[in-house]
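At this stage, I put together one protein's amino acid sequence and its C-alpha cells, which the following lines show:
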Amino acid sequence: MARQVGVSTMTVSRALSQPQNVAPETRERILQAIGTQGYVPNGVAGSLRARRGRGVVCIVPHIANSVFSDTLQGLNDALRPASMHVMLGTSGYSSMEEAQVLEEFVRMRPEAVVLWGTRRHPKSRALLRRLGVCVIELFDLVPDPFDQVIGFSNELAMRALVDHLRSYGRRRIAFVGSTNERDMSNTQRADGWRIALRHA
C-alpha cells in the first residue's frame, strides 16, 4: 500500500490507527488504495509489535443462561466503539476448565480479562499475574478481589429477601436452586437462606 501511494509504511499505519495524525489528502489517497486493493490489516502482526491484541477475554460458565448472554452483549456494545472485540470462552463452572481456556487466550495477548465469580484456580492466578492486564471479576463481592470486582453478595441478597418475606408474615420459606455443586453463586444463596431462617 505504501509503495502504491508513494508514502512510508508508517504513514499507512498511522492512517489506519491514528487517522487524525495524517494529512486529509494523504489519508484519502491511502483509503482509496486500500478500497481498490481490498487490503485488510494484519491484526495478529500488529498485536505482536504492540505486545497486545485488540480483544477482551470473557469466560463465563455457559452461554445458555440469559444473565450470561446479556452481560456478554453489554460488554460487546461497550467495546465496539473502541474497535475492540470479545473473545468468548466457557468454563462449565470448573475452575480447572477456566484455567485451560484462559491459557489458550493468554497467547493472543488480550487487553483485559473478564471472569465470572471470584474463585480462581492457582494456575489461573499465575497466568493472570504474568499477563499483567486489567482483570474484572463479575457477579460476586469479596473484600480481596484479584484486581477489580463488579458484583454483589449472593448471601446478603438472599438474607435480605428472606427478611423481606418475613416482614409480610411469611413463615415457611423454601429455597429452590441448582443441583450443580460447582455453582458457587447457588451455594452462597442457599447459605444466605439458611442463615436468615436460623436468625429468625
Notes: Residues 184-199 form the longest helix (16 residues).
